[in-house]
Amino acid sequence: MSIKKKMGIGILTGTLGLSLIGGGTWAAFNDVENTTNTFEAGTLDLTTDKSVLFELSNLKPGDYFTKTLKLGNNGSLAIDDIFLKSTVSGWEDVKHSHLSDNGENNQVDFLKQFKVTIKRDNVSLGTVTADQLMSYTTNPREITGSGTNPALLSGEDMDIEIKVEFVNDPATYPNSRLHTQNKYQGEGAEISLKFEATQMPGEERNNDGE
């Protein structure tokens, strides 16, 4: 056999030997453990006991009414704050030819004839005229004022009392016995009250039960 062939066999044999040595580095023992992990979002569910709070017609100056709405927390999460939003629609100016100005007015004029007092669990939150409720459309009014404490824990409820008074204004037209409030006869509006609940701030959590 030539020297070149002998060298080639020697090199192949050496390579095979290294391969066998490298392939022998494995362990017979091992262990596998598994953990099953879950997370689930809670529910935020503000409820009301009425879909219509007041629906009255044929009102006159001096009339008033008080209605109570119960707000409840039917969710699993505590409610941080509750905000009141309000929108007004459906108003139309009714003309009265026997009045010197034909009874012309606008929606704000009409709504100013009504005072609205809001109470939470018999605590007064203040009195506004109905036209001021329109500002709650873009700037919702906080009605809980609970600070850092939850407004409603899961399963709790609160009473919101709303009193509306048609103001009796004795003012008259100049040189006339006709009262200026005559211009509001036959007029009306639809006021939508919307209550919005917010969650408590996020926080570090541990496993349930810990």
Helix/strand-derived category reads: alpha+beta
Reading off the top of the CATH hierarchy, the class is best stated as: Mainly Beta
Number of domains: 1
> What is the CA-CA span between the terminal residues?
80 Å
What's the average pLDDT?
Answer: 88
Major sheet details = 5 strands, antiparallel
How do the SSEs run, as a string of H and E? HEEEHEEEEE
Helical residues, percent = 10-25%
Shape: elongated
Separate helix tally: 2
CATH architecture: Sandwich
- Low-pLDDT stretches are none
Number of beta strands: 8
Instruction: Write out the strand line-up for the largest beta sheet, numbering strands in chain order.
Output: 1-2-7-4-5
Percentage beta strand: 25-35%
CATH topology: Jelly Rolls
Computed Rg? 38 Å
Protein name: Stationary phase secreted protein TasA, major protein component of biofilm matrix
Pfam families: Peptidase_M73 (PF12389)
InterPro entries: Peptidase_M73_camelysin, Signal_pept_SipW-depend-type
Task: Give a description of the structure.
The structure is a single chain. By secondary structure, the protein is of the alpha+beta class. The chain has a single domain (about 45-200), classed as Jelly Rolls, CATH 2.60.120. The chain is built from 2 helices and 8 strands; from the N terminus they run H-E-E-E-H-E-E-E-E-E. The chain has helices spanning about 5-20, 105-110, and strands at about 45-50, 65-75, 80-90, 115-120, 125-130, 140, 155-165, 190-200. The strands form 2 sheets. Strands 1-2-7-4-5 form a 5-stranded antiparallel beta sheet, with no helix packed on it. The chain has a 3-stranded antiparallel beta sheet with strand order 6-3-8, with no helix packed on it. A hairpin with a 2-residue loop joins strand 4 (about 115-120) and strand 5. The relative contact order is 0.23. InterPro entries: Peptidase_M73_camelysin, Signal_pept_SipW-depend-type.
